[in-house]
Each structure stands twice: as C-alpha cells, then as structure tokens.
Write a structure and sequence with these properties.
181 residues; alpha+beta; Glutaredoxin; 9 helices
C-alpha cells in the first residue's frame, strides 16, 4: 500500500519534469508497481483487485515480472520409516524433475523438496495438505503465497513403471509451470 501511494505521488508530480525523463520513469515505476498490486491479489484475494488491476495495462512488464515472482515446488512428504516403494517414489520424482526440468530447477522456477513430516516443525504439512500417506504434492506460489496445490496420488499406481511414473510427473509439473509463466 505504501508503494502504491508512493507511485501515485510520483506520477502526480512527474509531469512537471522533462517529457523523456517522465516517460522513462513512469515506465520503470509501472514495472515495479503493477505486479505487486495485481499478481498475488488476483489469485488469493480477487475481491480487492479489479480496480487496481486495471491501472496496469501494459502486458509485457506484467508478464516479465510475473515470471520472476512465481515458482512451483514439488514436495515429497514422507515419514521416518520408509518402505522400498516410498523410497522409489522419492527417487523417481527427483529423477523425473531433474530430467525434464533442469532449466527450471537451475533458475529457481521449480524446486524439489523431500520433507519428513514426522519432524516437529514440519508436522503442519499433514493438515495443510490433508496427507494420509507418503505423497508428492505440487504447489504453485506467486509472490511467496501459495495459490494452488495438487496431490499426485497416481505416483503409487505408477511406482512399478518408471517411464509411466516419469511421464505422469512431467505432465503434472508442466501444468503448474504454465501457470507460473
């Protein structure tokens, strides 16, 4: 809100300066203010957004900044005791993500995080994601706020077929990455 107020004041006083400087400064301020006002709120708080969202009409800065503020995290939630199938699911998940999404991993657009939910500070994930078994969860974050998640339940079905498992994880992660663009 403070940033929005500062941008408003800046725009109010900027027409008094040279036109080239004003245009460049206004373009720069739009790049920093548009996504902060429209991206996280549009997904998580749609009722507050429509008026402010209309202010930023330049699609290219929005797209540019949106890709910088969005990411996908693939969590593999497990317990302390790990059966061979659970270990295979974690292994295949990590391998599939590395195989198909090495660029997204290196840029931070995608992360793979195995998490033991039986450790004290991670137990909240059981309720957060309604976990009842070891699970691969794909979560979309925009501006550090989770806006969507999905439990990939079919990893258990495909654990015996590496190629089907890889393809399943690839397809699901791709869908989430499209929304993080």
């Amino acid at each position: 809100m403070v940033l929005s107020f500062a941008v408003l004041i800046y725009k109010e006083f900027s027409p008094k300066s040279e036109s080239n400087v004003t245009a460049a400064a206004a373009t720069q301020s739009d790049k920093t203010s548009v996504p902060e006002k429209s991206l996280p709120v549009s997904e998580s708080q749609p009722s507050k957004e429509p008026a402010t969202k209309q202010k930023g009409k330049a699609p290219s800065p929005l797209t540019e900044v949106k890709s910088q503020n969005s990411k996908v995290i693939a969590y593999y939630f497990h317990g302390t005791f790990r059966c061979p199938t659970c270990q295979t699911i974690e292994k295949y998940s990590g391998e599939a993500i590395e195989k198909y999404f090495s660029i997204e991993l290196s840029t931070g657009k995608l992360e793979f995080k195995p998490v033991n939910v039986e450790e004290g500070e991670t137990r909240h994930y059981i309720q957060d994601y309604q976990l009842f078994s070891k699970s691969l969860i794909i979560a979309l974050y925009k501006d550090d706020k989770q806006v969507k998640w999905k439990n990939l339940k079919e990893v258990w079905i495909h654990a015996g077929d590496k190629e089907k498992f890889y393809q399943y994880v690839k397809n699901e992660v791709e869908e989430f990455l499209k929304e993080a663009q």
